[in-house]
Amino acid sequence: MMKQLLVLALLSVAGNPVALNAQIVYILGNGPGGMVAGQYDLSTCTFCPEMEIPYSLFPGGNGSLVPLPNGQVIMTGVDLIYTFDPPNPVPLNTLNPPGVIYFQGGVLAPNGNVYLAGTLFVAGQVTSSLYEFNPVNNTLTLVGSFPNNTVILTELFYWNGVLYSFLSDITSTPTTFALASIQIGNPLSATVLYSYTNLCGAPTTSITSGPFAGIYGGSLDPDCSGSDVYAFDLLNNSIELECEIIPSGFPYGMGAVPPGFPTAVCLCATDAGSIDTEPLSSYCVNETIAVPHNGNETLDNDDLLQYVLFSNPSDTAGSILATSNTPGFSFVPPMQTGVTYYVAAVAGNNTGGNVDLNDPCLDFSNANPVVWRPLPTVNFSVANPNVCAGACTTVTATFTGTPPFTLSYDTTASGTLTQTFPGNTGSVQVCTPAGSLPGSFAVQATALTDAWCTCAE
Q1: Residue 199's domain is classified under what CATH number?
Q2: Per the omega criterion (within 30 degrees of 0), is the bond before 187 cis?
Q3: Is 171 helix (H, G, I), strand (E, B) or coil?
Q4: Is residue 154 within 8 Å of 201, Cβ to Cβ?
Q5: Residue 4: its H or E element
Q6: What are phi and psi of 57, to 5 degrees?
Q7: Are 419 and 438 in contact (CB under 8 A)?
Q8: pLDDT tens digits, 127-183
Q9: Of the candidates 261, 259, 272, 335, which has an alpha carbon nearest to the alpha carbon of residue 300?
Q10: Beta strand ranges found along 96-150 (DSSP E)
Q11: Within a 10 A sphere around the Cβ of 10, how many other Cβ atoms?
């Protein structure tokens, strides 16, 4: 009897699938304006959304998702089968089979068609069946069924040519769950490999297998949050966290990406916004370079907006020298004066308080070129420091910086004077009043301005 099979002790069956720690899966989950579908890399826990699908296409909820080698994706709802060609969110084909079939699982069959697990609820009878969907001619064929009111097929996967499924035993109270190999025929039969009494009440929402027999579930979370992807190790009867899922919510559908499936082209909502466009701006080393952001960024729930200073506009992410959470940068080593840098805003996933530069939806704003200028300096020298009362002497001024220079200087003999110099050297006349007493006097710069910066005492 099927009920007896479902309560067998755990079996260690040689050759069972084992967890795989790196795989690309296709998922469907909540987005800002609809259900977002795309490829999820479990080795880096990064999501590349490819299309946003209106919630209205799935009025009864989503049931399963199966990527095809040609790049198309089969998605099912309650009594609905869609064929999508990402990134186009409009279905290529729609099939509405007779009756009301609750599709709960799907897998790519060896012949290129898609096996779907479907359940019919008619007049108090619950019938779980295996269907074969042909995506070429958009047809659905019944393969076989279990006896009424016994078990419900949920998620399906293939490994080594054998079809596996999670089963719900509806004859037990509470409902028990099992993993079984499925013998295809009519009626269907199953050989239970493992039995479970509780996996968050719904262990089979999103199960898929990798090409090397990894099994992943979006609701195999022992904390029952349903927002993570876990790898399921059949040999050890254990699960381990792989990734915290993005988009939000557990994936409503998840399917292994088959060999030959096209590389994803990300459809991203993340936008770093813009900054006011300015020509090359020069700043003094004692000034803060501003990033004039317009406040028009678009961020996902897990995104962060930051500001970057970088050196190569052809390789923004690879030449970042400084990152700031506020729109401004100060001059610090190893920055150099006279070198053109660039400032911009950046937006992406928040990883430890910084934007993840590996986020496939990483976005930079436009950039402004900036350069820091050194503060000017002046050095005084005099050929003969001795001067008679009532006489004058020449003091040579040597400047660093960019001419012209405007120098304000003070002498204890003459007071404060201001003079402009067109080049990097010049001279000033320092005179002593008639009748001055013997002794020393000084010449001291009080302010100096070159073409870029001002240095004041």
Answers
A1: 2.120.10
A2: yes
A3: coil
A4: no
A5: helix 2-5
A6: -70, -20
A7: no
A8: 999 999 999 999 999 999 999 999 888 888 877 778 888 888 888 777 777 778 899
A9: 272
A10: 101-108, 114-122, 125-134, 139-145
A11: 13
Q: Which of 366, 370, 377, 384 has the alpha carbon at shortest distance from 399?
A: 377
The answer to pTM > 0.70 is no
CB 350 within 8 A of CB 303: yes
Q: Give phi and psi for 4, each to the nearest 5.
A: -65, -40
Identify whether residues 368 and 383 lie together within a single domain. Answer: no
Last residue of some domain: 373, 389, 409?
373
Q: For residues 139-159, b (16+ Cβ closer than 10 Å) or e, as one string?
A: ebeebbbbeeebbbbbbbbbb
Number of domains in the chain: 3
Angle at 73 between CA 158 and CA 39, to 5 degrees: 85
Query: Domain span at residue 426?
Result: 377-456
DSSP string, 221-252: -TT----EEEEEETTTTEEEEEEE-SSEEEEE
The Cα 448–Cα 418 span in angstroms is 10
